[in-house]
Amino acid sequence: MSKTAFVFPGQGAQYAGMGKDFYDNFEESREIFERANEALGFDLAKLCFEGPDQDLSITKITQPALLTVCMAIYEVLKKYNKADSAIMGGLSLGEYSALTAAGAMDFETAVKLVYNRGNYMQNAVPVGEGGMLALMGCSDEDAKAFCEAITESCALLEPANFNCPGQIVVGGKAEAIENAISKAPEFNIRRAVKLQVSAPFHTSMLKPAGYKLKEDLKNIKFKKPSYNVISNVDTEYYDSGAVIADKLEKQVYNPVRWEECVRKMIADGVTTFVEIGPGKTLSSFIKKIDKNVKSINIDSIASLHEFLELSYA
């Protein structure tokens, strides 16, 4: 039997105006934004709807903002969609949206947790000391060999995101980033593009952030998710609430294995992926991973209606 997976985007998908049409038209969405404002003690809804983009791109704001918009859309989808998702997943921060949607923690716990996570990640590496590169047109093996060579000859560089065939993100020390750009063609890498990010996320340089997050995670009593939720760290499903804290800590400073997550879901019978939240980043990755599966994104009321019409056609 064919299955549907609901997937949630990570940092970088945000834009000013996201979620506003849901807030304006659905009580369920308004309630989520109001609960976020109350839990955090500031007007997150105003930042989501009006920006400015510069403030919305601050990691400690981006993370709760994205989770809130994803959950505001999901609550509406849940009301109208009769077919339950068999599997859920998310890229980096998106994993928190998936776990929240699957009932592993309540929304207030999740939004406060990701606000702290964003803060820890933002402050783990002083500005200017680290960075990230997107490597285009290379294999996983070439990317790993590239990172090892740069680390040996210059400074730390590590794989951070295995997004899809031909797109791998690496991160590390600032001097490694500068040195790596010119050396990329020597390792069968078509192009290396410097990313505008404030820290080398999902590398060992973020361990201090992971250790701080661990203290917060210790105080949360996670429940077993109601659906299969896949982990970025080991591409396994969470089989109990007990393993969630450990995996979420490790996720901060380990590579995100998104391509493997998608392939595992497809192997387990998923034929349709529904990306819930701003942008089409995950849909774009999924098409490059397997063009035979269907991928839909819901980030507006128009796209919600499109999905519902498709589901019940």
Mean pLDDT: 95
**Which stretches of 5+ consecutive residues score pLDDT under 50?**
none
CATH architecture descriptor name of the largest domain: 3-Layer(aba) Sandwich
Assign the structural class, choosing from mainly alpha, mainly beta, alpha/beta, alpha+beta, or little secondary structure: alpha/beta
Portion in helices = 40-55%
* Number of continuous helical runs: 14
- What is the name of the CATH superfamily of the largest domain? Malonyl-Coenzyme A Acyl Carrier Protein, domain 2
Order of helices and strands: EHHHHHEHHEHEEHEHEHHEHEH
Let me know the number of strands.
9
The number of domains is 2
- Which CATH class of the largest domain applies here? Alpha Beta
**Shape designation:** globular
* Spatial order of the strands forming the largest sheet: 7-2-1-8-9
The name CATH uses for the topology of the largest domain is Malonyl-Coenzyme A Acyl Carrier Protein, domain 2
In whole angstroms, the N-to-C terminal distance is 18 Å
What fraction strand?
15-25%
Q: What is Rg?
A: 19 Å
Description:
This protein is an alpha/beta fold. The protein folds into two domains: 3-124 and 205-311, Malonyl-Coenzyme A Acyl Carrier Protein, domain 2 (3-Layer(aba) Sandwich); 130-197, Alpha-Beta Plaits. 50% of the residues lie in helices and 16% in strands. It is built from 14 helices and nine strands. It has a five-stranded parallel β-sheet, sandwiched between helices. It has a four-stranded antiparallel β-sheet with strand order 4-5-3-6. α5 packs parallel to α6 and α5 packs antiparallel against α7. The radius of gyration is 19 Å and the shape is globular. 47% of the residues are buried. The model has no long low-confidence stretch (mean pLDDT 95).
